[in-house]
Amino acid sequence: MIVPFVLPTVVVGIAFRILFRDGGPLGALGWDGTVPAILGALVFFNVAVVVRTVGGAWEGLDPRAEEAARALGASRTRAFLDVTLPRLAPSLVSAGAVVFLFCATAFGVVLVLGGPGTGTIETEIYVLTTQFLDLQGAAVLSILQLLVVVAALSIAARARAAGETAQRRVAHAARAPRRGDAPVIAATVVVAALLALPIVALVVRSLRTLDGWGLGNYLALGGDNDVMPAPVWQAVLTSLATAGQAVLIAVPLALVAALVLGRRPRTPALRRLLAVLDGALMLPLGVSAVTVGFGFLIALDRPPLDLRDSPLLVPIAHALVALPLVLRTVLPVLRGIDPRLREAAAALGAPPWRVLLGVDLAIVARPALAAAGLAGAVSLGEFGATAFLARPDGPTLPIVIVRLLGRPGGEHLGMAIAASVVLAAVTVLVMALVERLRVNSLGAF
User: What stretches pass through the bilayer (predicted)?
Assistant: First the structure.
């Protein structure tokens, strides 16, 4: 369920193009290049947000309230509607707000799947900047998008705060499946199969070449071509190096911010100040990566911050995009630390720096590793900001995929699909490691 969210948007767009194009598994629907295809891709991309946010909250609910309702004669449906659903309302609102943000900033999906006349604020900012050089028009659209993002983030923050204060998480052992769980399990299997369909179609299509079935598309990635000055495999190394640099920037910044936001101030003024800081740090979660790249392009063009020719420009942009996700992964862990642990360490003579190392950082170390993997996965698939900032001689793999898609010829399409499978495989491997390091269901958005 989590894999679709971390798949690069370019990969998701290509997978759905294969599904809905003429001759594809769902080509009879005639949705290629239409809004329904974009909506399907956005649903595919955001299922994980709801699963992680609502599922994590549901997992932490005290089951005794629903059991008491059942004992008083309520049916399973009545107990769910009157007891469980109201307690899940904050997480549902929070997940809905975040899904709205991700759909409003889905640049790669719209760019790949949208046909003529199908555009969003994202694509218009890109077109105005790269094709018409209308920086003023692009700036107006960016500010408009920012206002919408701030409103949606405010709703998500209020819902998240309500969920944190309305109930306390309860740890309880998982039970074995029962006969009554069969419909839910069957529905989950169906959803998982639907989510797997685009990826399966992508992999199968990557094995089809102009000469039949085989690995020709993958072998072509290692040769010279007219799209980039080096083999496509070089773009894989560039993407991995960029992801590593982004992780080294994002994780320390997120840890520092989490240590500040994880405190419990006693005065209302300090609490409001931390709430404002938390909202400011969450802005990159909803602000489009296209807007981030555009902002970098026009803001970092004069000394002493002229970074247009710096190789660190793209990693910094990726770190900014990944920062909110890293923060939301480690912050709940720090907020869940019993303050008596710090007090006991201080009472035993530990100085503040030793309390920080021995209590806070020791407990958050494993979630921080998971957050680092999440930041790396986000960086690997980032396309919006990179489209503005990537250097011509060092493109990342998503940039190469889009270049291949823009070239005529079946061999270029086959290479783009094969490169998409490679990018998806690397991302999934990173996320597999993240899931092993993740703490329970922490890490919701």
Answer: 37-55, 92-115, 135-161, 182-204, 235-261, 273-300, 312-334, 413-434
